[in-house]
Amino acid sequence: MILRSLPIYIFLFLSCNRPSSTIDKSSSPIYSEEQLDSIFESFESIAYERPAQYVSNPDSFFNHLTVQANSPYQKEMYAYGLLFMGYGLLQHGDNFGSVKYYEKAYNYIKANQVPTENINTEIITPLANLYVQINDTQKAIALLQKALSETKDNNEIVRLSNNLANAYLYNADLDSAKTILLQSIKRPSNTLSSALLYNTLATVYEEERNKKESTYYNDLALRNFKQSHLEGDTLLWYIAALGLKGSLEKDSKYVNEAITIAEESFPNDQNRFKAKLTLKKGDILREQHHLNAALAAYDNTLSYFNPEDKAYILDYTYTQALIGKARLYTSQQLLDSALYYYEWAVENDFRTQQLIVSSKDQLRNNILNKETIQNIIDLIQSKAGLSQRKEIVQQLLWCIELSKARLLINEINRSESWNSSSNKTKIGMRTIRDLYHKIDISVDTNEKRRLSERLKKAMIEFELSEKHFEATQFTPQKASFLKHLNKPNSDFYTYFIHNDSSITIIHKSGQEFSFKRNSASTPLSKLLSFKAKYFGDTPNNYNQNPKEYREQAQYLTNELLPDLGSAQRNVFISLDAQLYGFPFDALCDEDFLVKKHNFAYLNSFLLFDFLSKKAREESKISIFYRSEYPSPLPNLQFVNTEVERIYNSFSSQKIGPDKQNDSTIRKQFAQPNIVHIAAHTILDTTAPPIIYLNQAISTNQLRFYEMKTPLVFLSACNTGYGKPLPSEGTESIQRVFLSKNVPSVVSTFWFANDQTMLDLTTSFYKQLDQTRDPICALGEAKRSYLQSAGSVEQNPWYWANINYTGIGNEIGLKKSSNLSYYLWGTAILILLGLQYPFTLWLYKAIKYKNEKTYNKTK
């Protein structure tokens, strides 16, 4: 009996004693196959029967299992242990922990070909539902579509279709959700399945604001549920239908009934589900102005998560409860409390959203988050004097910057974690990059379509193997954020554009913070017309009336850059919406602003927290270039001269079209050199931007490169321009380099003038060599250009398109080696030095010979 139980005691011992980070395998105990069988049986048994032993700290429990499964039986027990951990965490409300362990189970089963009874039921469906709950709907859709394409069983098709419809619903694709639900209803299925389909369809119609159809299908769902035996998940479906009934009728009694059933049937678990119900109750009561009862409902929602003080719970229900409390306090004129909860909600929302992988879901959530920021600004303006309080403006600045560039920050952190990822993930990255490469260079439509289908499947497997939830650690702190805004010789302006086109501006200068909101849309409309007039396809509008330009530019300076007269040399600007692509340094304050200031653009000041400085004592320059192109693209006449100037002055490597294969390009980006690209770029409204070197390289492909470069100089047209992204700037070539943690990017806003680009590029590197600061180097290059430019070339159309984006990092340049010149010079000097004695010797020799000949003939 003692020997038979030994493996269980061993497993429990392993679970109670954390191993050191480095395990000495030579001293590890050796177990028999029977003992290993029992260890993995115990792991599976505890995961299934005793979740209380791990739900508070699942990683600790899991990491104590230090033995490896060898036999098929052990692998099966291990896989089901992971699966049961995912299920146990789900039942106890830990959605993100549940996702992590379901993903572990999925990857392990796939890698080891572990047989399962039904992978759709056991993993795919709960995992997809979890993705929906955490708003990562694109992953859910891809996973379910793949499962549906491989399923033949009718009942399973109905279940998967309902889950897919739910994912479409949360993805705001209501037409797709309706289509698949109405098709599924026609399939023969049991009463419970029909009830579930009806209720999901009712929810779709509710989103469409079609109360009549929503009520009809909700009633059908409730009728079918009541005709069935309900337990477990089916009981949860019925409770959800009751909650929907309460929302439709705006009557909290149905929600109360749902809450009562949930509390009685699931007293110790399903806390997140119950929190959704109490949140629904709070919203109904708040709309009916039962403020105290609503506040109690919101507090009840938060209590299900057991928070301590100002906790961050990675759940949107938690965030919505915080926003609910903020709105209640606003209506009661308790403004400090309202701001406290709004700030907490924005911070929690940021952390939660960073766990979303899909870009479409990120962008959709950005739009939803913007409403919260507008509520905060409206609240601050609702009371006189509130916008003058320094701590309030700091609080607003922090919230605004947290609301921007969330997708970009997520991409930066994902990209960094890929560098230390598993071999499987790295293989997936290579596969995806290669597929994008083939798509970029293919001219065959059918081939592109076939490759895109392969890519879609590869992306699913890659994202599941990525272990995103294990790698993410997003903990930006307000104190650290504000500290980064203490750069010497620097001022900071942040912008937030409202739905009515008014602009909120926060300016930090020294230790002072100021708040301004334009009362109308006039500044933005004037800025857009100014931009279209002077920075379009031609420089002629400025030349016709420079005075008019300067008057309009002065007006925009006054509106957009308050107190600029006292600002420091460097001006950092956090952009928003239509402000992207506008050259602030071409505005005027008596003269062009660039005469006094260097401008650096950012998607959010939070990038100071997330981008790496990558300081370099001496950097070489890797120059990618192409000057000749097939029609209709024009040849780039200045490129060869530009390349030679850089090459002759600094330590550089010229990489022309004949050397631009995929391997060489990737190798150069993976080195800590400056990357200079002189080539055409191609912008398309439907496809990602492309750098056109020897072959096309899309931004999709670049996202899967390894990059260590401290600076990218994009000496090409429109590299800072692209499709607008909500709260993210533009889908530009410049942005993709930021997403790869490149701290400094020089790019262009519109078509580059050949000669001006050549002059500014050459001057930039000379200034960078002197200052070691790319922000200052670009500003000095422009000032040097303007100092010598004629009246026509002073036109900002020529020089203002080149801009700097980044956080500022120190970069030294390695000079071009002059050893060969020194050798030749030394040789010439030696020859010159030897010339006189050789000539003297030769003269004496000839003279002596002549004298000797003369004496003989004498």
Brief sketch in words of this structure:
InterPro entries: CHAT_dom, TPR-like_helical_dom_sf, TPR_rpt. The chain has 858 residues and is of the alpha/beta class. Among the domains are: 422-466; 486-602, 2-Layer Sandwich (Nucleotidyltransferase, domain 5), CATH 3.30.420; 611-813, Rossmann fold (3-Layer(aba) Sandwich), CATH 3.40.50.1460; 825-858.
CATH architecture grouping of the domain at 611-813: 3-Layer(aba) Sandwich
CATH topology of the domain at 611-813: Rossmann fold
End-to-end distance, in Å? 134 Å
| Count of DSSP strands | 20
Q: Give the strand content.
A: 5-15%
Structural class: alpha/beta
Low-confidence stretches at least 5 residues in length (pLDDT < 50)? 1-27, 818-823, 852-858
User: Oligomer, anyone?
Assistant: single chain
Largest sheet, spatial ordering of strands: 10-9-11-15-18-19
Gross morphology: globular
Helix fraction?
A: 55-70%
Number of helices, counting only DSSP H or I runs of 4 residues or more: 36
Tell me, what is the CATH class of the domain at 611-813? Alpha Beta
The radius of gyration over CA amounts to 33 Å
